């Protein structure tokens, strides 16, 4: 192996040193760019197309395990590699930790990359590297794993060396690594060892050791890769562990454990983030790393400072002792420079430590004597002279301190020396002698370095134990919570007996008890709900059977009805036509209840018309023929009196009845006699006939005139004719109103739109509708009417009348046609409020929310089928109104709101 190292050094030495320096600096710059790209989470993959994307990791406990395994493997492999000697005294297999980095990066991915810099620094510290070197090499600890990251990008998704493609990518990576990494460290070490040694010796040694690593890497990967996949610790096979996202738009490029991903699909699955376990572990680990780092730094600095102060005291005491002996020698010898052997004896007598060196120089820095086994042409002596010449100005002082380094190539070493220069003036010869005492750093820092390495080992174990403790703590806290999560999912699937376990933490144990209690309660509730659902299903089945039976009976009834009225129209089977037929049945049912009353109400006005026409005919035949002759006999005053009395007679049709009681008639007869009216009995009868019951001064003025009874007689004739005409007119309107209400009630078509809206006076319509029920309400039913408004509403008159008919009919049936119905009409805001209140027993609270449903009825069989209120609601809502009700033990009040004009 030594021959290989010699050959590599020979080959590299053929390259001019300036070219190597330029290449080392280029490797440093390129490696820095790759490090920034790697540690910031960017990625590129060699696949069907080259693309730059961003890695998004799920930071869970498995990611922390990746970090932990990487840290431990680098620490152990670095320690073992430093103990494997390749070339005695020259080279160990230190790059064995590079093999760990290669494996961990390709198996674990990005978390392993984060662990490498910390593990590298701690490993070098354990191996005895001075802390000052660590600071100078800090960029390399980040750049070096970034070069390994290139292999992760090339073969990381499938590091299977049984495939030729993996070998091609691997050889490309090895080539890039060997032409960059050794010269990168040559650049980083040039400050400590100089460019020639760094690039010729260190770079060639790194090429040799890493070459051995890259020979072993495929074999080790081939053996360990199936094991990593089997235990589920290969990053690319863990579902949703990592995904690659385009940096230009939020779309998914690749997701771990999913091979077929459409790049055009948006990011629908977002399971990235920090898990609860890592959220607990991460602060603990960071705190331990920070405390260990600060403690180690402060301890080492204090140890170095103490050692440096000790060697300063030792320098002064040693120099002072030698100067005293030179002073004693000067008193006994004429010229102390004449015999170097005497000076050598003085220096030998002053020896303090075998590692110390003492040199005596004249003013030209020529060696006079020394306490050292160093030859006169040694590298230490030459380096000392160079440093003394640099400090020539400071050497004029009595004491001077300086430090310098001696670098050797074979074996490669860099020894730091601490020198103390004191000037001694010979009094007799007036010459100056420079006394130089030297101690190597290893003399007073060897223990510090040893303690440093041992402390690093202790810190490594402390960090490792703290990581393990953090994992155990996270498991202790989060495992019950994860069990709760699994139990919740099981509850959602119907598994009520999923075990949640116990926990040492009191709060989590209480949560477990509460969760189990909740599970039992949910189970009981679910069983009750299932039983309720079963009962509902059974009830629905029974209801469907009842509905089917009633539907069959209803259809049979409809067929019988159609057969009875000999209609040839066939009933359609859809719901719309069925409802129309049911509506007709509802109207006919209501009509059947008051048909006799309607017949009576029609016969009454028709009889009044017939009798009035006969009376009018008699009057026209007997009395009207003599009227012109009577009028001719009247003078102007009599004619005015005739007109005044005639006007009173004509207005009688719009007034209340003129009948008087016996007492009233006796009182008014006395008043006429007191006023000396002729024929008072006849006059009072005539006044009563024309409806004059209130006698004022104007009337008495007319009645006191002679012949007034003849005028009254003719006025009564004309007034009777007018009253008969008014009776005929009223009876005709009443009969016509009854017929029209009955016609619109029977033939209202709900499919026609509300195009017949007009101004409707609700009190007038209500009075007309009450005539349809006159036969039912004139005996045992008292109608109380309170009309407080004269405003009109905008509605369809015929359809609105159907609403009043249904509500009045319901009120009569609710009272069993005995009681009081209070009807009031008022104005409320923008509506005309019509209230119809009965004195029945009210509607039960259990069914109040069902009264407007189709086919719901509480009436007796034959009184209705439950469509009346549904029809009313539809009519009112089409008119932009609303209908509601208030019901109690004292009766039910239906309130209808119709927009006013």
From TrEMBL:
Domain Histidine kinase: start-end pairs: 795-901
EC identifiers of the protein: 2.7.13.3
TM regions (residue ranges): 26-44, 64-87, 99-122, 134-155, 167-189, 201-225, 274-300, 432-450, 456-477
Matching InterPro entries: HAMP_dom, HATPase_C_sf, HATPase_dom, His_kinase_dom, HisK_dim/P_dom, HisK_dim/P_sf, Sig_transdc_His_kin-like_C
Name under which the protein is recorded: histidine kinase
EC top class, as a word: transferase
Top-rank taxon: Bacteria
Database matches in PROSITE patterns: HAMP, HIS_KIN
Kinase keyword on record: yes
UniProt xrefs under PANTHER family: HISTIDINE KINASE (PTHR43065:SF48), SENSOR HISTIDINE KINASE (PTHR43065)
